[in-house]
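hi! just following up on the protien thing from before. the input was this:
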Amino acid sequence: MKRTRYSPRRRKSSNLRWLPAVFGGAFLLLALLITLFDYIGFRKPQNVYPVGVSVQGIPLGGLDRTLAEARLSEAFSVPVELHYREARIQFSPAELGFQPDYSATLAEIEENLPKKSWFKHLWGKTEVATPLDISLVADVDLTQTQQLLAQAIPQRYDQPASATTPLLYTTNYEPGQPGFSLQSLVSSAEQIQTALLSPTQRVVDLEVQETPALPLNRENLEIFLEQTIQLEKFNGLIEIYQRDLSTGETMHLALRANQGVVPDVAYSAASTIKIPIMVSTMRRLEEPLPTQASNWMFQMIGESLNPPADGLMKAYMNNNTGPLMVTADMRELGYQNTFLAGFFEPGSPLLERITTPANQRSDIFLDPDYYNQTVPSEIGDLLSKIYRCANQNELLFNGQVTASECQQMLDFLLENQIYALIEAGLPPEGRAAHKHGWTNDLDGLIHTISDSAVVYTPGGDYVLVIFAYTEQQFLYDTANQLFAKLSQSIYNAYNPENQAAWYGD
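and the predicted 3d structure came back as:
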């Protein structure tokens, strides 16, 4: 058997065996190039700001430097609006001394941006951007701001307070207006600085100081009352005493035929003397008042009856000399011209012929009643004392008349409601604690009419006393309108924001 020997075939050599090496090298080279370019791109400065970057809340993410600067300029170039009460005033930032530096601001952003890791980037790890908010780099010239405010604001917007002004031919006034002024240039400039540096809060409410309206000048009030008397064509003698119960300021004028005369003429007191009688009675009574005394007080003041006045003096002073005790009390209080020299009952004797500085004047003599006389300033001062006693505890006769007794006297005077004279000039908001007086003289005519009151008003309380005299018969309607207009003129001066309109014409 023939054996056949197997021999392997030799393979031919080929260049294809190098291809894997070539491809592997090319891939590696490509990977290196990609990595190199990625690194170069990573290290190259970014031309836009990352998300989360802002300047005082203005977002700049995704903007390049040029666009970012434009956005900042747009935000901080908005005019600042100043509010001066209702006025709205706008100024450009440049006018107010504002000098922003946007380039420096963006440079500060770039310096503060966090450094990125290329290795984290290479391995695909996302870095969370940290928010970055930068304050605007800017200068504010506060001196320039203050100068602009001083030049532009006070002259145009400040307003001085004005006084209440009488309106001729009426009992009314043009109310005074409050004043306004810029309170502080320094403080206002600092507020504006804050607004200039804010992209959103660019409104400043300036600090404005308000001063109250000026009260009516008392000299102007006196002139106004004189004009009212002239317009009413009253040619007799009229005297007005008025005292502010808060300040103590006093106005006292007297006109005869529209010509000024020295005040405090001696007048017949008539029922006005019942105020001193009430004071003297209170001095001698203990609290609470006896029922009889209280009833007589009401009848004497509220109903203006004469017998109760005599009853009080006889029961609680002296049956024979009660009127002189009233006179002595008035002297003790400092009143030299106020007296009562006899009882009211017809036929009562004159207890004493009393002379006073007022009834001894040689320039004016009205032939006042020998039984009872007074002058406006004294009866007005007495009402002031009663008021202060009740409200400020300034007791009368060293405490013999207490505050509660003084309040009782004012309450009795409030019960005297005749809706005429001083009362007629008051609206419902005003009240008069008063006593009026008039009487027929020996010729059977009424020559003197008076009214003396504590007037309560929302705008302040005051005493008002008016005495008027005519040589002829004094017509009640004439006196009523004259007294009412004078009363209303004074009430409106105290209440310019809530005036009463004259209803008598």
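The chain has two domains: 53-211, 218-494.
Residues 246 and 461 are 7 Å apart (CA to CA).
cheers
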